[in-house]
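Researcher: Next entry in the queue.
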Amino acid sequence: MSAIGTATALAAKAATSTIPIVFTAGTDPVQAGIVSSLSRPGGNVTGVNFMASELGAKRLSVLQELVPHATRIALLVNRTNPIAAESEIKDVQRAASAAARHVEVVEASTSREIEMAFAAFVQNRCEALVVGADPFFIERRVQLATLATRHLLPTVYFQRAFVEVGGLVSYGTSNFVRYREVGIYTGRILKGEKPADMPVVQPTKFELIINLPTARAIGIVVPQSLLAQADEVIE
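Model: Structure for this entry, 235 residues:
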């Protein structure tokens, strides 16, 4: 039994129907095919959905409040993770259309492609950026935060780790809460409970983190209304 991500959970599920599996998923685990139902997962699999790719519309809303003049928004996704990418593209494009914003989708799955993506943002006159929820982007968070600041591009991320290394703002679930839930579920299974009967945990709290030095560096004045909503403001 182990706590694993979406792709690994699918592979583990295909490999065994008896060993208990506890997953952490960044996208809808039913849509991804990990479980048949959130309330009754069935089989040997259950876990925590931290909804990383399902909050794209909310992140766009945060960005709009931060830079209300921006009408051309870039969305960076990793097509090697198609389930998360497609979910976030649909979510952001739907919200952008309702707000009369244009979304420019750009793909990157290597460090070099991230560099190329920022060149495309400049060429296409994008005014703000949503970084799609993807583990690869966490690995490249310093590069992303550095490039966003260098190009004076207001950017919203899906995890506080980006803001801690100089990113402007993040909105998502707390990693502390996420892994605590995984630990609780693992303990319950070790005591005899069956994954099939344990509902997939859905997050109830999300955190908004803002980096004020970065805002000043790119010439953004963070509205008081957004500061009031923040769970943490990095001074």
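Model: The chain has a mean pLDDT of 91.
Researcher: Noted, moving on.
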